[in-house]
Amino acid sequence: MMIMLITIFFFILSNLMMMMSMILSKKSFMDREKCSPFECGFDPKSMSRIPFSLHFFLITIIFLIFDVEIALIFPIIMLFKMVNMLTWIKTSFFFIIILLIGLYHEWNQNMLNWTN
Question: Model confidence over 78-94: pLDDT tens digits?
Answer without folding.
Answer: 888 888 889 889 988 99
